[in-house]
Amino acid sequence: MKISVIGCGYLGAVHAAAMAKLGHDVIGVDTDPLKVERLSRGEAPFFEPGLPELLREGVASGRLRFTTEIADAGDARVHFLAVGTPQMADSDAADLRFVDAAVASLVPVIPDDAVVVGKSTVPVGTAASIAERIRAAGSGAEVAWNPEFLREGFAVADTLTPDRIVYGVPDGGRAVEVLDEVYAGPLATGIPRLVTDYATAELVKTAANAFLATKISFINAMAEIAEVVGADVTQLADAIGHDARIGRRFLNAGIGFGGGCLPKDIRAFSARAEELGRAESVAFLREVDAINLRRRERVVELATQVLGGSVYRKRIVVLGLTFKPDSDDVRDSPGLDIAARLHGLGALVAATDPQGIENARVRHPQLPYEADLDAALSDADLVILTTEWAEYRGLDPEHVGELVAGPTIIDGRNVLDPEAWRSAGFEYVGLGR
Ligand SMILES: NC(=O)c1ccc[n+]([C@@H]2O[C@H](COP(=O)([O-])OP(=O)(O)OC[C@H]3O[C@@H](n4cnc5c(N)ncnc54)[C@H](O)[C@@H]3O)[C@@H](O)[C@H]2O)c1
Ligand SMILES: O=c1ccn([C@@H]2O[C@H](COP(=O)(O)OP(=O)(O)O[C@H]3O[C@H](CO)[C@@H](O)[C@H](O)[C@H]3O)[C@@H](O)[C@H]2O)c(=O)[nH]1
Fold first, then answer.
1. pLDDT tens digits for 64-123?
2. Structural domain boundaries, residue 264
3. What is the tens place of the pLDDT at every residue in 103-114?
4. Are residues 280 and 314 in the same domain?
5. pLDDT 10s digits, 250-274
6. Is the dihedral of CA 59, 60, 63, 65 positive or negative?
7. 289, 315, 345 — which closes off a domain?
8. Would you state the torsion angle of the CA atoms of residues 253, 255, 256, 258, taken in this order, to the nearest 10 degrees?
9. Which of 5, 30, 68, 116 to mutate to test the pocket of ligand 1 (most atoms within 8 A of CB)?
10. Rounded CA separation 410/399 (Å)
């Protein structure tokens, strides 16, 4: 089937390449000419494991093309909307200007039998209002909402073999049939598919991210208590996680969640609930956000403590600037935020990351970056692990001990073996343990 994907960022580029892998004829549309140029050469414009191979394969097969011209996508049967929905600069609400612009550019170039499929994460009510706009413009194109649940770092596998596929569709339309054809490959393997209305589909996505964020803040709240009484939050998580009703996943306490999704999505949900007169229904999400942001302050507090009362002029190496490993994404990254806070307090920060330095530099040009890990560690008074990249988890404490000036490490993700670091002469500080 001929498919277009509008917006080729972390979500859209992967979706476009995955649709080509499923055998479809795909055109990706993005307003950023540099991104389109790189994608057209089969190169990934960001770091995502497995994506370069998929892009190269798709472009070489002739089934995957990219353009800046929306008109080039006019003859596609299905148009996936995958543009960004960031937080507004001056409020918690989602900024829908890219969605609005994408729809406005699309409507004049598509025929009446086209299906416009939203994948971006939007406030509940958006799909219905887009459908209304399309009708008002005199187009017969149908709108469906098909939220995306991929995780960065696992985006390719999550797209090709998702846990579930959700369609929000209008009654009596053709979208279900068309989407079943798009996803025939994954559906044939037995992946659950749920068909519902627009509002439910939009809320499924928002609710999923709200639940995940709540789970992380719950365990971080337990970490705050554990810190006071000398308990170990990782053992607590293991113990409660054995209860299948609770589950161990997403119970890793540490410096909290970041990224281009969970933080802005819970805030947008709160803002939308307020508009709907239901602020109190999700008031707990404000607390989830507050607990999460407190973890960053806590790390600065711990750094100050272990350095004898001040970080001023102390050499601190921050290991990890991306919001999670196996991604170059630094949007709302706790590690980068902590590095910037410490720098602001006069610490001599060495900020390092295997993939994120380039993006971090754009957001925080004032920070000193050091790409070489050993050079970053040299003469440090304090090491802080902020992103659990494999190379940081696998650090040899003896080797690090030879490089640093002061053997103290704050394990912001609780992923290191405290005993191994203590035996190498380090003061090991975990979060909530
Ligand atoms: N990143 C993820 O892991 C992920 C997962 C699930 C859902 N989402 C949701 O998907 C959406 C996109 O997120 P992202 O992380 O890919 O964002 P992104 O910023 O990486 O990508 C958005 C892309 O859209 C392009 N764009 C903006 N306006 C356009 C227009 N009018 N026409 C064509 N292209 C346009 C931008 O140039 C950019 O390349 C968001 O709603 C997000 O919440 C993201
Ligand atoms: O136990 C945990 C698990 C995660 N995190 C942090 O939470 C953040 C988000 O992690 P993750 O959810 O794996 O990353 P994303 O790629 O942002 O994916 C989330 O956001 C996407 C965009 O909406 C959704 O599609 C995914 O389903 C949802 O998991 C990261 O900073 C992690 O370090 C923790 O602190 N503790």
1. 999 999 999 999 999 999 999 999 999 999 999 999 999 999 999 999 999 999 999 999
2. 206-289
3. 999 999 999 999
4. no
5. 999 999 999 999 999 999 999 999 9
6. positive
7. 289
8. -150
9. 30
10. 17
Helix (H, G, I), strand (E, B) or coil at 109: helix
Provide the 10 A C-beta neighbour count for residue 184: 13
Ligand 2 centroid, distance to 324 Cα (angstroms): 8
The SS3 assignment for 230 reads: coil
Shared domain check, 407 and 299: yes
Number of domains observed in the structure of the chain: 3
Q: What's the CATH code of the domain at 299?
A: 3.40.50.720
Q: Is 259 in the pocket of ligand 1 (CB under 6 A)?
A: no
Residue 140 confidence class, pLDDT cut points 50, 70, 90: very high
The domain that contains 243 carries what CATH number?
1.10.1040.10
Residue 149 known to bind ligand: yes
Cβ(147)–Cβ(204) below 8 Å: yes
Are 233 and 126 members of one domain? Answer: no
Residue 261 among the catalytic residues: yes
Q: Is the CB of 11 under 6 A from ligand 1?
A: yes
pLDDT band (50, 70, 90) for residue 324: very high
Non-local (6+) Cβ contacts of 346 within 8 A are 311, 312, 313
Best residue among 216, 222, 288, 385 to mutate for probing ligand 2, ranked by most atoms within 8 Å of CB: 216
Q: Which residue's alpha carbon is at the smallest distance from atom 10 of ligand 1? A: 120
Kindly state the tokens that stand for 13. Answer: 């580029």
